[in-house]
Write a structure and sequence with these properties.
CATH superfamily of the largest domain: P-loop containing nucleotide triphosphate hydrolases
Largest sheet: 5 strands, parallel
CATH architecture of the largest domain: 3-Layer(aba) Sandwich
Distance between the termini: 84 Å
Number of domains: 4
Low-confidence stretches: 232-236
Strand order of the largest sheet: 2-3-4-1-5
Mean pLDDT: 89
Number of strands: 7
Radius of gyration: 27 Å
Helix content: 40-55%
CATH topology of the largest domain: Rossmann fold
Strand content: 5-15%
CATH class of the largest domain: Alpha Beta
Oligomer: single chain
Shape: globular
């Protein structure tokens, strides 16, 4: 049986890896390890199809070490023993252990000494948060790296390579991939290259060629192979961004009917991920401090949607959309942090005041660190006036509260009360 295209197109050396340049680009941590041949065990975590296995196989290909793949959930301790025996006989082995968060304690206890002596370079792969799901004994012996979804440009690059490669890819076929079909492959897979390659291969192998042998892959064929409809067929490929933009602007404008319409478009296209991401952003960007409980309810709705999936996911998301549309609005938080970031970007923001600097080490007092700091809990109402911002910014007011909800009205009153007391106290 022929191996899948996604398997055949796995990179054979680190330079062939698509995406993840924050890890494998020139001068980055994994590239440095490979160049110096000083590998350490690591855990790669991130969504499916983003290159965890590819990174492991590319590391092995670039370093010429033996490469073995096991699954922590389905492979037994016996398989681990075979890999360790091989490492003892022939030298270092790179072991990709998929679903490492499901590694049992007996398997873990067997592996640990071999990680420490360097016989096994473990590359654990997981979609779970390793700081929560993976045993501390494994975490302490590995470096943890986040693998991110690929961009549309990166997926397009990988598709182009697969179409051209005559040995491992589809280059021997006379394929014509419509621009709209390629764009949909890049967008609808949400950064999952494996899904994009699988759909492309299915389309190529299941589409009848024309009389001249040309296999034309249209948007309709890709929609069928992905089981994910495009939002609309538009020439410029802007429909996805237009719908997402209209979705957020409709909620921001408190139009529940329009927002439900654009949510329906996203869900009809199977784009649950974009709907969820946008709702979480909207909850904190546009409703924000005017109604923080609406944001909390949105998080709960998105969590429910992710657990139950489509089509039932439409129900909690519709609740969230209506809730956000009719909630009071405030963008004061995003405006405040953006104003602070603007000052950071401009530079010249000054040093941390000496009394706020870390004083928990010997010799700090000699450097003037922490002297004259007033511990607020020792004063009435657990507050005392003292300077917190650096000198050049000490009169800055980033937060500009609004009056669009009872919660932020209360925050505004407290903020102004404290700022007034602070100004008076600092001028005594």
């Amino acid at each position: 049986m022929k191996q899948p295209l996604a398997y055949r197109m796995r990179p054979q050396k680190i330079e062939e890896i698509v995406g993840q340049q924050h890890l494998v680009g020139p001068g980055k941590i994994i590239r440095r390890m490979v160049d110096a041949k000083l590998l350490s065990s690591m855990i790669l975590y991130g969504p499916p199809g983003t290159g965890k296995t590819s990174i492991a196989s590319a590391i092995a290909g670039s370093t010429k070490y033996a490469f073995r793949m096991l699954n922590a959930a389905t492979d037994s301790k016996k398989e681990l023993e075979i890999v360790v025996a091989e490492a003892k006989m022939s030298g270092t082995v790179i072991l990709l252990l998929d679903e490492i968060h499901r590694l049992t304690k007996p398997k873990q206890d067997f592996l640990l000494p071999h990680l420490e002596n360097g016989r096994i370079i473990l590359i654990g792969a997981t979609t779970e948060n390793p700081y929560i799901a993976i045993n501390p004994a494994i975490r302490s012996r590995t470096q943890i790296f986040e693998v991110k979804p690929l961009s549309e440009k990166e997926i397009a690059s990988a598709l182009k390579r697969a179409l051209a490669d005559k040995e491992r890819g589809l280059g021997k076929l006379k394929l014509k991939l419509a621009a709209t079909a390629q764009l949909h492959l890049c967008r609808a897979t949400n950064g999952d290259l494996r899904s994009a390659l699988n759909a492309l291969e299915l389309a190529a192998e299941s589409t009848k060629p024309a009389a001249d042998g040309t296999i034309t892959i249209t948007l309709k064929i890709i929609e069928e192979c992905l089981q994910h409809k495009a939002l609309v067929q538009d020439k410029n490929g802007d429909a996805h961004y237009d719908v997402v933009s209209a979705f957020q602007k409709s909620i921001r404008g408190s139009d529940a009917d329009a927002a439900l319409h654009y949510l329906a478009r996203l869900l009809a296209a199977g784009d649950l991920i974009s709907a969820n991401r946008r709702l979480l952003t909207i909850a904190y960007e546009d409703i924000g401090l005017a109604n923080p409980q609406a944001a909390a309810r949105t998080v709960a709705a998105v969590t429910a949607a992710e657990k139950i999936g489509l089509p039932e996911a439409r129900i909690p998301l519709a609740n969230a959309v209506i809730d956000l549309c009719l909630a009071p609005k405030s963008n004061s938080a995003i405006m405040a942090i953006d104003a602070a970031l603007s000052d950071i970007d401009k530079g010249g923001y000054g040093d941390v005041p000496a009394h706020l600097k870390d004083a928990h080490y010997r010799g700090a007092a000699k450097l003037g660190r922490g002297i004259d700091y007033h511990y607020p809990h020792e004063y009435p109402h657990d507050w005392i006036a003292q300077q917190y911002l650096p000198d050049p910014l000490k009169r800055k007011h980033y937060y500009q509260p609004k009056n669009n909800g009872r919660y932020e009205e209360a925050l505004k009153a407290q903020y102004e009360r404290l700022k007034t007391a602070q100004a008076k106290g600092l001028h005594l």
